[in-house]
Specification:
The complex is a heterodimer of chains A (319) and B (328).
Chain A: H1 4-11, H2 20-26, H3 32-61, E1 64-66, E2 71-75, H4 78-83, H5 96-129, H6 133-142, H7 151-157, H8 159-162, H9 167-174, H10 189-213, H11 217-225, H12 230-259, H13 262-267, H14 275-284, H15 288-312, H16 315-318
Antiparallel strand pairs in A: 1-2
Helix pairs in contact in A: 3-15, 5-10, 5-12, 10-12, 11-12, 12-15, 14-15
Chain B: E1 7-16, E2 19-29, E3 34-38, H1 45-53, E4 60-65, E5 68-69, E6 80-83, H2 95-99, H3 101-105, H4 110-123, H5 139-151, E7 157-161, H6 169-186, E8 189-194, H7 197-203, E9 206-211, E10 214-219, H8 221-226, H9 231-237, E11 240-245, E12 248-253, E13 258-261, E14 269-278, E15 282-289, E16 294-300, H10 301-306, E17 314-318, E18 325-326
Parallel strand pairs in B: 3-8, 3-9, 6-7, 7-8
Antiparallel strand pairs in B: 1-2, 1-4, 4-5, 9-10, 11-12, 12-18, 13-17, 14-15, 14-17, 15-16
Helix pairs in contact in B: 4-5
Classes of the chains: A mainly alpha (319), B alpha+beta (328).
């Protein structure tokens, strides 16, 4: 006959019934909700300390006053009024800030449309034509190659390629396709869009691919069985079911491009105005309230675009 | 509904790289037949169904539906429709849009196709769920929707890939009855893939037992149960004992295998009774022959009670040689 005490001895040697050690093992465990807070905690703290609090400061500072050499911690709308200076007088012509935002939105739209187009088909190829998981992984990793070197090195590397006497121009001239080197290859909208597309297509590919691989292959067969052509299957089945990925990828690309100033600066030869560049210029001029005000404006506009996109698809449900 | 048509497979073969999935299968299914392709996984039954459906290219041979050779036609031009194993309902479309999908692909306007889809939903008693999304339906309800969606093209043959496997046992029996009723009402052929012999026997007018890409035997449920031709069929269809009688393999039905106390020299196979299980109307008795062959016998309760054997008893397993099936 084995008593429960003997079993206890066997399982936990040295623990006798009622001893402090045995009592300790009976103490309630950490509640599951506490554990999950603990897991999410570090990220939450980082967010709070380095994102939310600074953001609050930015909003506060945007309402401060300033002069040529110092910040004046008093409520003032000067950061905003300076930004929109002349906007009403000049109507119907656009003021500087208006034109800058039109330019930014235009770049943003072009990059978005091109990355979406390329990204969608790359994801489609990976999800539906590449059968083996290993190849899917390998080819996805290929898309990350642009991130293997620094942004700056990559952009500098393009100068000998796209420059006035660069490889492309001299090649075209030698081939007799053009008489004079073309100017718009570098330090132009073209080069900015090219650089941004090459960088951010990956951010479209990943979420769209993710949505696509989750599409049950039998759905495509079911569509085929119902007499759908390839195009009809694409429009009626694949695109609707890839929508979450399309929206998530679009949010990535749009938010990054809206705030970009380095790529636009370098590839645009510092000639192209962009929302991000205004902020940079103001910061360099030590006009922090004006910079903060511009940051708030950019934030609001980007937020509006994302809200509009989220309307198209319920991201919470899809994640 | 379209006129029912007969289906004929002529030496239909499917090769995948090096393996032969379906090996020159010849099969005739008359119009309006409920046919089950029965076999273990990997026997080629699903490949055969998918070739009939047009979702798998035929490596060699012909598929003839009615008066038309459909071997190289796309699914929608064949007059077949397929119901997929996982139902494959479009998760982003409501029930009615799922059912109307094929009509939308044909460019039929919304009121017309919704009216027709509504009729089919009525046929499967799902009218009140027309506005729901598939995720909001139970397994059985999803199946009805899948059925309605397949039928909207008015196929001559409905192809069903393990339609009942995703359902729980209770629902499986009920949906089985509904499939049979629907097939009778529509008068078209249903060709169903299954690995459950019970399901096949309950449903099919014509059972095709497949193994290793070939048809082992075909016929009505009774023909196959009464006269299994090969050891594989006898074992797969269930309810049969396969034993060796003077070097000849024979199949003896479990309910026709008798048990008598052991007596030297009498007809029968000496065996050790290993287990008895009470099953209500009969007692399932397990036996082991001296050569190690496991047998089972279904003894009617009343017969068993006359002479209740116990595990460990030495007995003779007997059968009527006239009823035993000689196997090839």
């Amino acid at each position: 006959m084995t008593t429960s005490d003997e079993i206890l001895q066997e399982g936990s040697p040295g623990v006798t019934r009622g001893s402090p050690k045995a009592q300790a093992s009976l103490r309630p465990r950490l509640s599951p909700s506490f554990v999950s807070w603990l897991q999410a905690g570090p990220m939450m703290l980082v967010f709070l300390a380095f994102f939310l609090i600074p953001l609050v400061f930015v909003v506060i500072v945007s309402f401060w006053d300033y002069n040529e050499y110092q910040l004046l911690p008093a409520f003032s709308g000067r950061g905003y009024t300076d930004t929109f200076e002349g906007c009403i007088d000049k109507l119907p012509e656009l003021c500087t800030i208006g034109r800058t935002y039109v330019m930014t939105l235009k770049l943003c739209f072009m990059v978005w449309a091109i990355t979406l187009f390329i990204g969608f088909w790359v994801a489609y190829f990976l999800a539906f034509h590449v059968k083996s998981k290993t190849w899917q992984m390998g080819l996805s990793l290929l898309c990350t190659i642009p991130f293997w070197t620094s942004n700056v090195i990559r952009m500098i590397a393009w100068i000998p390629l796209l420059g006035r006497n660069g490889l492309v121009n001299s090649g075209l001239v030698k081939a007799g396709l053009i008489n004079h080197p073309v100017e718009w290859l570098l330090f132009s909208e073209f080069s900015v869009v090219l650089a941004l597309v090459h960088l951010f297509t990956f951010f479209m590919v990943v979420p769209i691919f993710n949505s696509m691989v989750r599409i049950d292959k039998s759905l495509i067969e079911a569509a085929y069985d119902a007499g759908a052509s390839d195009f009809q299957t694409l429009v009626n089945v694949i695109i609707p079911l890839s929508k979450p990925g399309i929206v998530i990828g679009s949010i990535f690309v749009i938010t990054i491009v809206m705030g970009d100033f380095i790529t636009i600066g370098v590839m645009g030869g510092q000639q192209i105005a962009a929302a991000g560049k205004i902020i940079e210029t103001r910061v360099n001029a030590l006009q922090f309230p004006a910079a903060a005000a511009n940051a708030v404006i950019l934030l609001v506009i980007t937020f509006l675009i994302i809200t509009m996109m989220s309307r198209i698809v319920d991201i919470k449900k899809e994640l | 509904m379209a006129l029912p048509a007969a289906l004929e497979l002529v030496a239909v073969t499917k090769r995948y790289d090096t393996t032969l999935a379906v090996d020159a299968v010849n099969l005739k299914i008359p119009a309006g037949t409920y046919c089950c392709l029965l076999g273990p996984s990997g026997c080629g039954k699903t490949s055969t169904l998918r070739m009939i459906a047009g979702h798998e290219a035929v490596s060699a041979g012909d598929i003839i539906l009615g008066a038309q050779n459909v071997t190289d036609l796309p699914p929608a031009d064949r007059g077949t429709a397929m119901m997929f194993q996982s139902y494959a309902l479009f998760p982003h479309l409501s029930v009615i849009d799922n059912v109307a999908f094929a009509l939308k692909m044909r460019g039929i306007d919304k009121p017309t196709r919704h009216k027709r889809a509504g009729e089919l939903l009525e046929l499967v008693a799902m009218s009140q769920y027309a506005g729901r999304l598939p995720a909001q339906l139970s397994g059985g309800q999803q199946q009805r929707v899948a059925l309605a969606r397949a039928l909207i093209t008015e196929p001559q043959i409905l192809l069903l890939d393990e339609p009942l496997s995703a359902l729980d046992p209770f629902l499986r029996v009920r949906m089985r009855g509904e499939l049979k009723r629907l097939q009778r009402e529509l008068g078209i052929s249903f060709i169903q893939v299954t690995h459950g012999q019970e399901e096949a026997m309950a449903l099919a007018d014509h059972i095709v037992v497949m193994n290793h890409g070939k048809i082992e035997q075909q016929g009505t449920a009774r023909e196959i149960f009464h006269h299994p031709r090969t050891e594989f069929v006898a074992r797969f269809i269930g309810g049969h004992n396969v034993l060796s009688d003077a070097g000849q393999l024979i199949a003896v039905r479990a309910d026709q295998l008798g048990i008598v106390p052991f007596t030297d020299g009498a007809f029968g196979a000496p065996a050790l009774l290993t287990q008895t299980e009470y099953q209500g109307s009969y007692v399932a008795v397990s036996l082991t022959l001296d050569d190690g062959t496991a047998l089972f016998s279904h003894v009617p309760e009343a017969t068993f009670d006359v002479n209740p054997f116990r595990p460990g008893d030495r007995v003779l397993a007997t059968w009527d040689p006239a009823k035993a099936q000689r196997l090839q």
